[in-house]
Amino acid sequence: MLVLLFSACDSSKKPENKSNSENNQTSGEPSKELIGKTVDEYQKAVTDVSTPSNSSKTTKPVEGEIVPLDEPDIIEGFKTLKWEGLVAPGFDVDSILKKYEPIVSKLEEGSDEANKLYEKMQAEYNKAPPNQSLANKKVSIPGFIAPLEQKDGVISEFLLVPYFGACIHSPAPPANQTVHVKVASKDGISVNDAYDPIWVSGELLIDKSTTDIGTASYKVEGAKIQKYEVEN
Question: Is 61 helix (H, G, I), strand (E, B) or coil?
Fold first, then answer.
């Protein structure tokens, strides 16, 4: 996976905060070396992990696998998806990267030319088609959050993305590698846990949405959130 470093998401675009007393800073910010890592890679770099908290089995990540499971991919009646399963058949994100990579390497980071090229790449990423066969399927997907809205220190709306720090470096993930997630406030995520990988389970809708920090081809509303648990 290529992560381009010449531009960053607009840091002035913060998750909407409906409480004047709260800010969006979280404690325990991870090392920058973790940026760009998938769930599997992140957990290997930090510690071994288990399956979701209500599972009776624990496993260690398998090399090359995003989802560290040794059982059939069903969790609480939801089909476990790997991120590549969200990609429409025939779509190749690498072809976009390969087209722009030679040009990017010649541009100065932060230059007007680099920013314009980023916009072109992002426009192509935003058109990445969803996998129509997943419409209205009950699924579980592991990933990281890019917060959109929080109140009283609880994040209730976010983008689920496949790798850590997806909005720190550009371009943002393709639309078909991004899920717009909404949860009830009582089921939200503490801002103090915002860096941790999670599971999102719910009905997967093919419903494109554009936010200040990225475009998503998919949506899950009323999602159930589960953390990865650290194996002691």
Answer: coil
CA–CA separation, 150 and 152 (whole Å):
7
CATH number at residue 60: 2.40.50.870
Q: Give the C-alpha separation, 121 to 177, whole Å.
A: 15
Residue 15 lies in a domain: no
pTM to 2 decimals? 0.72
What are the residue ranges in the chain where pLDDT is below 50?
1-27, 47-72, 74, 230, 232
Instruction: Give the closest residue to 51 by CA, choosing from 140, 179, 157, 166.
Output: 140
53-75, pLDDT tens digit by residue? 443 333 333 333 334 344 445 46
Length of the chain: 232
Quickly tell me which residue has 């560290």 as its tokens. Answer: 68
User: Number of folded domains in the chain?
Assistant: 1
